[in-house]
User: Which sequence fits this backbone?
């Protein structure tokens, strides 16, 4: 297949390029800066993929028509991963890339008459949380998005708005579309490789530097994870499967509660685990004190992803089984991720 990927240079995108090229597919990477092709190919080569199967097309989500210099043809599937992924974004900035930019990608998929796989997040499967943020689930177009942006961070609000906008657009045009909802992404199952910009990397860094003296939330709170290579294999499988699911929650239900996650991390790094909990609203309030979020390297909006909600992952498990993708083993991938972190961090 010929697969166009937005966000190929990102953490998930790089691993997806490995999986797709290993399976013999051709990847066209849409990049703002085509000079990054070289490092992407080096990563793919070093990870056992086929770098010569990757070509580049310059483009930017924020430009009309994605700013493409020439017409595309022969694309079988678009995987849309690109996003402004950071805390403390200005709402306009987040919307421009994550909402308007995503609609530009959907327009291209419609024009090319190809499958669109778009990546949202596991919070889309937490309806209690969505309702709490003020999202009108029966009539999403009635949602007052400016209120949602006020209640949660601009990154998360823009991803939620984008998910509803893409669902509407793809349904309205009868498109072949798949929504993938990943949990927070962990390092590679066997190498533990994880980008320093990833939220889990920051969490491990905080643990290592003793900034996690208290556990956010209660014993019921958890941060569901999924290793990056398992996610990449799932996305790659969704590109080619004849009858893909409309939506797929990609989440390791065996992720323990946050206390258990922190215990495993501290054990792997030979440190003492935190024991006491602090309610998340209290923590979020404290983090609004000037400068504290930066010093502690924890942003109030990041804590929104720690919830007590449980998820039904039967469809995901069936998908893994039907595609012969191994189920991830929490204790293995969390240890390799922590070990990878330790291999980068100074003593
Ligand atoms: N990582 C997670 O824990 C997680 C969990 C759930 C969902 N997701 C979603 O998964 C997707 C990928 O996440 P990630 O962790 O791989 O992100 P990432 O490492 O931050 O990568 C973001 C990618 O988006 C590209 N990009 C940003 N703005 C762009 C623009 N205007 N035009 C074209 N490309 C642009 C970046 O390209 P440059 O090289 O040009 O900067 C980069 O390749 C995102 O949609 C994210 O919301 C991630």
Assistant:
């Amino acid at each position: 297949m010929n697969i166009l990927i937005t966000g190929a240079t990102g953490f998930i995108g790089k691993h997806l390029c490995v999986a797709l090229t290993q399976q013999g597919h051709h990847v066209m990477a849409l990049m703002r800066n085509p000079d990054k092709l070289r490092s992407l190919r080096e990563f793919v080569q070093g990870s056992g993929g086929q770098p010569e199967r990757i070509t580049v097309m310059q483009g930017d989500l924020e430009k009309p028509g994605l700013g493409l210099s020439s017409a595309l043809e022969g694309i079988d599937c678009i995987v849309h991963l690109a996003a402004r992924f950071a805390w403390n974004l200005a709402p306009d900035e987040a919307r421009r890339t994550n909402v308007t930019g995503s609609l530009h990608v959907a327009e291209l998929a419609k024009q090319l008459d190809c499958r669109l796989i778009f990546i949202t997040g596991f919070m889309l499967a937490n309806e209690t949380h969505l309702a709490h943020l003020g999202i009108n689930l029966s009539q999403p177009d009635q949602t007052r998005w400016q209120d949602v942006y006020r209640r949660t961070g601009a990154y998360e609000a823009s991803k939620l708005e984008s998910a509803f906008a893409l669902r509407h657009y793809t349904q309205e045009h009868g498109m072949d579309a798949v929504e993938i909802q990943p949990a927070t992404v962990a390092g590679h199952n066997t190498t533990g490789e994880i980008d320093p910009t990833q939220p889990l990397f920051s969490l491990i860094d905080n643990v290592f530097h003793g900034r996690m003296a208290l556990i956010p939330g209660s014993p019921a709170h958890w941060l569901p994870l999924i290793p990056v290579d398992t996610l990449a294999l799932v996305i790659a499988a969704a590109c080619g499967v004849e009858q893909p699911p409309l939506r797929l929650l990609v989440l390791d239900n065996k992720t323990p509660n946050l206390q258990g996650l922190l215990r495993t991390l501290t054990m792997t790094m030979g440190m003492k685990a935190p024991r006491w909990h602090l309610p998340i609203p209290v923590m979020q309030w404290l983090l609004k004190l000037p400068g504290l979020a930066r010093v502690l390297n924890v942003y109030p909006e990041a804590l929104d992803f720690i919830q007590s909600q449980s998820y039904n992952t039967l469809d995901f498990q069936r998908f893994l089984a039907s595609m012969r993708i191994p189920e991830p083993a929490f204790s293995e991938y969390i240890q390799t991720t922590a070990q990878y972190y330790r291999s980068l961090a100074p003593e």
Residues 2-195+223-253+312-330 form a domain with the Rossmann fold fold (CATH 3.40.50.720). The CA atoms of residues 43 and 49 lie 9 Å apart. The first strand starts at residue 2 and ends at 6.
